Amino acid sequence: MNSAEIRQKFLDFFAQRQHQIVPSAPLVVKDDPTLMFINSGMAPFKDYFLGNKPAPSKRIADTQKCLRVSGKHNDLEEVGYDTYHHTMFEMLGNWSFGDYFKKEALAWSWELLTEVYQLPKDRLYVSVFQGDDSENLPMDQEAFDIWKSMIAEDRILMGNKKDNFWEMGDTGPCGPCSEIHVDLRTDEERAQVDGKTLVNADHPQVVEIWNNVFMEFNRLADGSLVKLPAQHVDTGMGFERLCMAIQGKRSNYDTDVFQPLIQFIAKEAGVVYGENEQVDIAIRVMADHIRAIAFAISDGQLPSNNKAGYVIRRILRRAVRYSFTFLDFKKPFLYKLAAVLADQMENVFPELKAQLSFVQRVIEEEENAFLRTLENGLKRLDALEAKFKENNNTIDGKTAFELYDTFGFPLDLTALIAREKGLKVDEAGFGVEMEQQKNRSRNASAQEQSDWVIIQPDVETEFLGYEHDVADSHIVRYRQVKTKSKSEYHIVLDRTPFYAESGGQVGDTGYLISNAEQIEVLDTKKENDLILHITSKLPQNIEATFRSEVDFERRNLIRKNHSATHLLHAALRKVLGEHVQQKGSLVNEKVLRFDFSHFAKVTDEQLREVENIVNQRVRQAIPLEEQRNIPIAEAKEMGAMALFGEKYGEFVRVIAFDRDHSVELCGGIHVHNTGEIGYFKILSESSVAAGVRRIEATTAASAEEYMQQQLNELNAVREVLGTHSNISGAVQKLQEDNKALQKQLEQFELKQLTTLKESLVQKAQSIDGVNFVAEKVDVSTADYLKKLAFDMRQAVDNLVLVLAAEIDGKPQIAVMLSDNLVSDRKLNASQMVRELAKEIKGGGGGQPFYATAGGKDTSGLTAVPAKAAELVKTLINA
Ligand code: ATP
Ligand code: MG
User: Fold this and answer.
1) What's the first-to-final CA gap in the chain, in angstroms?
2) For 69, how many CA atoms within 13 A lie in the half-sphere containing its CB?
């Protein structure tokens, strides 16, 4: 059975059992501060478990892209070394939201594995939760009894809290679970060691494949458990591990999920997979990491310097390090792998293929940058080698940490390079530095968040913001969040006109007003599906009725900018082409920012054209056509483009300004008619990342203000020029005149210099067979001083020349000697100029025949010629 068939059979099995099959959510999590990436099949459904929102269907199944590289579930360091943990993997899952429970879930999993997939029963083990006294949790007798009716009792193992009580994160839904493990060893191996003893013992051929979690609790911030409003089933089966079991392989990497990637890497590297453990690890790291990198980017997370972007950057760098060190790839290569992956995954996750050239460009650019960094790091190590040798042949902890921190060299890489150079690394010292940095960032980001205080349970907020700016509301829950620098409250209302930051549009601000008081709303944010009103204090009377009032003026500016962003998007696609896709946006009351995929600078001409199209649409006063809750298929038929990395429900909101022009899926606030935008003006165009351009623009009064400013400046120029027509002609003429004058001036100065030279030649004085000239001269630049010195050298033999001059208000001295005086009489211009520079409180140097000095004291210049004469006399006599 190939992997595509295995995946399909899973989905079909649960579809036949009334499960709705849904597509995978994007990997990147947007509205949840506790999670950066989806790390399990249940994460996109968190709200349903918590009862924040009803599930669209009581039974759901899917394959979900998961990433375990940060937070509670982080497998990154295992990846490549073992054969069954990945950064990005697919989790097959079936869910019951308050519907079926343990009996059905366990029976179905058994049926699917043993009958549909035909896994031999005598290779399977199951585990149930043994209970935990410290939390007062009983053993899962029910699961045990269900299993006993299907499988021999000695194959049912008791598991502790670590293995059999599943938690998504430090807080959130959780519950006891029952795992299924498979023993893939050979018959001989199995005869020697009982498989039972290898379950949960990190054995590469005795691995967990499926976990059935029975969600019953919510873990609160204070660590306590409370019962969830309903009981749910959450199951997760590792797709790649399942393929290994069904295809009878000993490693996930030997299945058809990874082989195309592995073969491609091996061929390009000129090696054979399976011959050398270190090389194999590197190949596995690359085959694994490209999946995490490519899918994260196609889901909208570009590598960057902070947060989720930094996690992706680190994964990419880990892959480059291994390929650089063990496979000798010194040029970008990973980006090529993305194409192999895209072909392979086209039918399951088409988003990668659809954006392949963009994704490749981003990866290649990152690889290039990191390869340069690696090289610089290696140079740094080379440069410090002598120092390490003196330091008892050891790279000190501080340097090792600097390499890690600024050059991305992890300790193992530094140690490897050190070994090649016959050096050691002070690993303890490195650990100390690392710990110190961790403490610094822990202190900076420490935040304390209280649990929700529920005023009214089970209330789903009604959002009124599309029609209203004001509403009567009640608080349904609140909590306090403290960081080192501030303390704030998150307030959730039963009804609200406040728009929470999302889709690039900033959150609303305003007031919650009761009879007794007025609380300022500083911002509005989303957390999953909760709308959080952020305030700096709590109302005295939590249960009062509040008039919630959005800052209307500000919102009006925001909505103009948001609608203009849609018009801009449409115009860009018209002018630049259909490859233009939104890659990010920011809309606030001042500007709009739009990032989009495009591979070249947008020319001024194209920008004008875009601007003109948008302003034309503004003048046409096109009415807003808003459709809420239409099926996504219908929206796509209207021409609305779904953005990659955006999570859409079955029903969506469509915003159109003329269906033939601009149709978008959007949850934001818009003008009723494009005429309200007034005027649209592009402020700048720039590059943000490989293949991504950014346009900043503004509308209405601030666009007007901007134009006003530009005109004012122009008028000021007109005023100065004293002309109102052909300004650029006038400026050009000025520039030309200026150039001509400059030339004249130069010629004049050169002529003067010649005259000066001639007079100096006349002044030459003979001291013991040497032609000595020392003068304070009048020249305007250091270049002229130098020219004068060199001209003199041409004109006079046996020359000792000392020139002193004030240039731009500062004293300068130049000493020039004929070559024969340097070689035969052992004079040295550098030494002489240093001695003379004392007169001007300065210093200098140069070559033996020519040297210069600068100083601080111009008044000393006049003394220089006499001092020079003395100096020469002593030097020559000596
Ligand atoms: P393990 O103990 O092997 O790390 P887990 O207990 O972390 O597994 P769960 O969180 O229960 O796993 O996830 C459900 C299933 O997802 C597992 O049974 C396994 O098949 C799969 N899985 C978990 N982590 C990974 C990973 N990093 N790579 C591939 N598959 C995984
Ligand atoms: Mg794990």
Assistant:
1) 99
2) 29
For 555-711, the fitting CATH number among 3.40.50.720, 3.90.45.10, 3.30.980.10, 3.50.50.60 is 3.30.980.10
Q: What letter represents residue 249's amino acid? A: K
At residue 878, the pLDDT reads: 56
Tokens of 813: 């001295």
pLDDT at 443 over 80: no
- Architecture of the domain made up of 748-876: Roll (3.10)
Q: Which helix (H) or strand (E) holds 711?
A: helix 700-721
Could you tell which of 42, 85, 200, 206 is best to mutate to test the pocket of ligand 1, judged by most ligand atoms within 8 Å of the CB? 85
Kindly report the backbone phi and psi dihedral angles of residue 475, in degrees, each rounded to the nearest multiple of 5, phi listed first.
-80, 130
Domains 448-550 and 555-711 belong to one CATH topology: no
Which DSSP category does 116 fall into?
I
Q: Is the CB of 91 under 6 A from ligand 1?
A: yes
Q: Please name the residue whose Cα sits nearest to atom 30 of ligand 1.
A: 238
Q: State the alpha helices, DSSP H only, in 35-134.
A: 46-50, 102-111
Q: Nearest to residue 209, comparing CAs of 116, 105, 92, 94? A: 92
**Tokens 């046996």 sit at which residue?**
798
pTM over 0.85: no
CA 125 to centroid of ligand 1, rounded, Å:
16
Lowest mean pLDDT among 636-650, 677-691, 852-866: 636-650
Mean pLDDT of 76-88: 94
Beta carbon of 68 within 6 Å of any ligand 1 atom: yes
pLDDT band at 620 (very low <50, low <70, confident <90, very high): very high
Distance, C-alpha 120 to centroid of its chain: 45
Our mutation pick for probing the ligand 1 site, out of 211, 244, 252, counting the most ligand atoms within 8 A of Cβ, is: 211
Q: Which amino acid does the sequence have at 365?
A: E
Short-list 677, 720, 667, CA closest to 697: 677
From the candidate CATH numbers 3.30.930.10, 3.40.50.300, 2.60.40.10, 3.90.1010.10, the one assigned to the domain spanning 3-252: 3.30.930.10
Return the domain boundaries, the chain. Answer: 3-252, 258-370, 448-550, 555-711, 748-876
pLDDT for 847 equals 94
Taking the centre of ligand 2 as the mean of its atom positions, its distance from the CA of residue 72, in whole angstroms, is 9
Number of other CB atoms surrounding residue 456 within 10 Å = 12
Q: Tell me how far the alpha carbon of residue 215 lies from the centroid of ligand 2, in angstroms.
A: 18
pLDDT (tens digit per residue) in 454-512: 898 888 899 999 999 999 999 999 999 887 788 899 999 999 999 999 989 999 999 99
Residue 561 has pLDDT above 80, yes or no: yes
**Pocket lining: 208 vs ligand 1, CB cutoff 6 Å:** yes
Report residue 177 as tokens. 């679970």
Provide CATH code, domain 448-550: 2.40.30.130
Which residue puts its alpha carbon closest to atom 4 of ligand 1?
85
- Write the single-letter amino acid at 338: A
